[in-house]
Amino acid sequence: MIRYIISRLLLAALLLCGLITLSFGLVSLLPGDPAVALLGEYATPADVARIHAELGLDLPFWDRYLGYMSRTLSGDLGHSLFTGSSVSSEILTRLPNTLVYLVPGLVLALIIGMASGTFAAYRYRRFADKAFTFWISILMAMPEFVLALVLLFVFYQQLRIAPAPIGMLSSAQITPPHVTGSIPVDAIIAGQWGTFSSILGRAVLPIVTMGLFFAAPFGKTVRSGLLQVLQSPQIEFARACGLRPAQVFRYALSDIRGSLMTYLVLLFAASLSGAAIVESVFSWPGVGGWSLDGVLKGDVPVIQGFVLIMGSTSLLGYVLLDALITLLDPRTRSKAVAGRRQKRLAETPAAIS
Amino acid sequence: MPLLELVELTKIFRTPHGEARAVDGITLSVEAGETLGIIGESGSGKSTLGRLILRLTEPDSGSVVIEGQDVLALGRGELRRKRRHWQIVFQEPFASLNPRLTIRQIVEEPLIVARMGDRAERRLRVLATLEEVGLSADFMDRRPANLSGGQQQRVGIARALVTNPSLVVLDEPTSSLDLTIRASILRTLARLRASRGLTYVFISHDIETVRHFCSTVAVMHRGKIVEVGPTRDVLIAPQHPYTQSLISAALPVVPYSAAVGTTNSQGQTS
Question: Domain range spanning residue B42?
Fold first, then answer.
């Protein structure tokens, strides 16, 4: 098992190098010259050359590539062209702000999707199933920013129970003492639970947006997966030999668990990019809105930093996923734990029919 | 008293294209120790009938009585506890076995559900049942994927028989197996029938199998039983035109015999 996880980690490390290469290639793929983006259309050739030298763009390809590679691997993601702030420290302070609503949002999506998809599968073709399919289609057709605006309209504008979409803290609140630079983390460290819960209160709408947005495709996957398993002879027999409905459901679920978990990791990767839009709507100071800003301005180090964060988070997700699936499935678990013993067993002649 | 009695059993599936009368007012009875073959083409409602008997599908109307027990009157909990007496073997051996469990776990599960015996007793019983269906103890710790189709179906049979049921529905148990294995599985089923005094409902579309295996045969067509009687009578002198066409559609066992000619002429008359 340990050997299996190590091999997965090695593969992930290789993929990470590939990811860094891609992120490096972004600079040349992106339209426009960073120096021109920085100085404006009317920059003199001398200024452009000076900026090129500053950014190291005049160096030979291999020097630039290897330099970028070693800097990135040592955690230095460069500085924003416009604000001059360090990209890695920006990410470190902003990532917790994103996670504070993204993780609960995905958990909410998991709960809603699981519950509604299961309910629909058990009520296949009845009213509940049709209602489910109807609402899912509507939700799936709706981009996340529309959903966010609808929620804002209803809960802020009309019902006035949600806070205004003006970020994480109101101006009246005292920011917690600077320790890590990330406000939610600092609030916890300083023990300012009032501040922290106010952040959570402001995060409710982003959480619900993410929850509903990702519950739709997840619920749909749960429904179609369960429908198929529930009709399989294996489950039919489980019912025929008198298993309790809860146990039958457990069997059905263990059959689709792997694919559901894979889908969840995919959704998580997608949600990081979806975060960009949602954060702009709620003026949330997370990585998403910040990177969107960087993309619009052509701030290359920021874009690269965001690509790297998204990519490596997904990579980490896939490694964890692989390990988890292997551990949960008795077939692959026994293979991963004691591959040789299994093989010897299979070779013993015991065939009768 | 017959072991199984069906009265006016009906199941209608409602689809967007209208109603499908899968099982349409079927009345049948099967004596203990008898084997009832149900034949008919695909879509004639054979499998639905098998599932209705075990109440795996809820019928729309009619009644099912097994060993004097009205199956449809049972509550959910009672039904689950009674299930150990009525079992089923499916057509697709691999799809009907949980791929995550070992053979021992698969065969032991019905015993656990029925709360029969302690660990040691269950183990012995699993071993004995596997032996009965022709599998050695070496199979206990394997998983379905490591078995051949015939072996998988033997596991399916062992699992159905381990709780010592009185009635077993065999839903095309040999259709997905090749000919030599088919024969050996049928021999095993026949041996178990004799040694345990089992009553089978044998669903099949293969006339030759039914001819060898069943004492009584019922011919189904579009949800109805068009002909029922002792196998020999029905298959040698079919009365209903549908039975005649079904028999004539079967390939003759001896391909170059004169039977080919008769088959064609019969096919045209029906």
Answer: 4-237
The answer to whether residue A153 sits within a structural domain is yes
Residues A120 and A160 both lie in one domain = yes
The Cβ of residue A75 has, within 10 Å, a number of other Cβ atoms equal to 8
Higher pLDDT, A305 or A184: A305
Please provide the average confidence, as pLDDT, over all residues in chain A. 83
Interatomic CA distance for residues B23 and B255, integer angstroms? 35
A330 near B CB under 8 A = yes
Whether A122 and A250 map to the same domain: the answer is: yes
Q: Order the strands of the B4-15 sheet from edge to edge.
A: B18-30, B4-15, B61-66, B69-70
Chain A partners of B79 at a C-beta cutoff of 8 Å?
242
The model's pLDDT over B169-210, given as tens digits with 9 standing for 90+, comes to 999 999 888 888 999 999 999 999 999 999 999 999 888 889
Residues 79-98, chain B, touching A (beta carbon < 8 A):
79-84, 87-88, 90-92, 95-98
Separation CA A276–CA A310 (nearest Å): 12
Nearest to B135 by CA among B170, B168, B171, B93: B93
Tell me which residue of B230, B222, B250, B228 sits closest to B240, measured CA to CA: B228
Predicted TM-score (pTM) of the model is 0.77
Question: Can you tell me whether residue A295 is helix, strand or coil?
Answer: helix
8 Å CB contact of A241 and B83: yes
Residues 6+ apart with CB under 8 A from A156: A162, A163, A164, A165, A205
